[in-house]
């Protein structure tokens, strides 16, 4: 019964996606993106089981490494902007528009 | 499964351009770690330029010794005609962009220091500079090389990230207007990470559908797997979102003006040329190789996206008062023109090859012109940095005629006026689209070109026919920028007057289409 896992993965992805759209704090937005990547991992592993090959499990490792690299860069950028503006709210970065 | 794992074979010679670039990037990191500060810049500049030139020479040599007809590296990378052409284009454009990066004063003294703080003051007086820019650029270029050559979706995802992550950082390193620069980095990063999550979930769904992430195997599965269409269609849509975001196609274009405006201008030049070329290569490979059998399903959507992109790009560009934002919207509109070529997938190989060669030519022509245009933007400066507001450009033609003439040439090339490279690029793409029966799309393309021509001409009129302000901006042209301008002018004029050699080259590269 892999369907349950796929439903869970889709739910996690949607929660992450909605979080990116509605949350204000850049760190929380970024955590939601990470949640989406983990939803992808769950889907990959489930499909690996369903398809009967190991590709999906190997891909999950690649995704974890990429996500780790993304965390390093993301936190660096968010910390920089926090130090400049004393705020990590995505609503405050509003100088560039129109 | 009997417990033995066959050793994979890697064709190192075929992957050499990428390996050289990545190797040099790692050496660059070591230089950052071990070389004394006063030596770093002197090591990085020649190292980066020689690496890009060397990788270009290897690419040419590969193209001359014969193009492989099967994917390399266990099917993960396809070094085929279009890939080699795109590699050559990206390497030349990156070389030119690095010449622009080499000039002083574009990058922050210390990115960790808060703007206006004593710490920043100290870094400035010490003459510190972020030489990390060079390895980051090389990593980004390496990702750009892998992205259009990736033959499975996993390699493509990794390439997407290797290309994007250094660019996120580079966006935030502008010396002037640091708040804008940091804001551009945050926006690009959050939206880019969001879109790559979509790309990845799309990959997962296609893997669930086809049982493989290999592009050719997905295409085979299109004909044989039944009853799982939901997985397939949602997967294709999400994959498309990820790729169209990188191109900046509407409705995923919102990041582009902000990021192009806030980033250091040499990095904008690299993004506007190299990233666009790489992303179009990847988009073509995914939609033509993996989803070619699904053409009837995605073509109508792509029509809509192309129309929306052209119209949004052209119309919003009119309202801009900032030169970099205007060029960003122009880049969005050009993305739309290029999407016309993606839709021009016909039903025979000859037609597809001519559409592909038209796209490749367009990418070369647009890449050079756009690097040149951003190079000109770096030269017009106020006391507080580059003069971005259009009103500051008034009367530039009277004060510095040469700069204004060069910039006008680039704008005319963007508009697609005959005798510039932009004309033949547009002509080739539109012709291929008409041959494939996409005439309504071409009509929209021509109309939005006309709208776009309005604001290009408006800038030219502003430069030549209005009086310069008394406190107008100064024009400073460092050596590297001179070279970039000269190369871009040469490319724009030569491709506009004698396009045939490059057209022939693009045609040869496109002849056998993508390998499967």
UniProtKB/TrEMBL annotation, chain A:
<keyword id="KW-0520">NAD</keyword>
<comment type="subunit">
    <text>NDH-1 is composed of 14 different subunits. Subunits NuoA, H, J, K, L, M, N constitute the membrane sector of the complex.</text>
</comment>
<keyword id="KW-0813">Transport</keyword>
<comment type="similarity">
    <text>Belongs to the complex I subunit 4L family.</text>
</comment>
<keyword id="KW-1003">Cell membrane</keyword>
<comment type="function">
    <text>NDH-1 shuttles electrons from NADH, via FMN and iron-sulfur (Fe-S) centers, to quinones in the respiratory chain. The immediate electron acceptor for the enzyme in this species is believed to be a menaquinone. Couples the redox reaction to proton translocation (for every two electrons transferred, four hydrogen ions are translocated across the cytoplasmic membrane), and thus conserves the redox energy in a proton gradient.</text>
</comment>
<dbReference type="Pfam" id="PF00420">
    <property type="entry name" value="Oxidored_q2"/>
</dbReference>
<keyword id="KW-0472">Membrane</keyword>
<keyword id="KW-0560">Oxidoreductase</keyword>
<keyword id="KW-0874">Quinone</keyword>
<feature type="transmembrane region" description="Helical">
    <location>
        <begin position="6"/>
        <end position="22"/>
    </location>
</feature>
<feature type="transmembrane region" description="Helical">
    <location>
        <begin position="59"/>
        <end position="82"/>
    </location>
</feature>
<keyword id="KW-1278">Translocase</keyword>
<protein>
    <recommendedName>
        <fullName>NADH-quinone oxidoreductase subunit K</fullName>
        <ecNumber>7.1.1.-</ecNumber>
    </recommendedName>
</protein>
<dbReference type="InterPro" id="IPR001133">
    <property type="entry name" value="NADH_UbQ_OxRdtase_chain4L/K"/>
</dbReference>
<dbReference type="InterPro" id="IPR039428">
    <property type="entry name" value="NUOK/Mnh_C1-like"/>
</dbReference>
<feature type="transmembrane region" description="Helical">
    <location>
        <begin position="27"/>
        <end position="47"/>
    </location>
</feature>
<dbReference type="GO" id="GO:0050136">
    <property type="term" value="F:NADH dehydrogenase (quinone) (non-electrogenic) activity"/>
</dbReference>
<keyword id="KW-1133">Transmembrane helix</keyword>
<keyword id="KW-0812">Transmembrane</keyword>
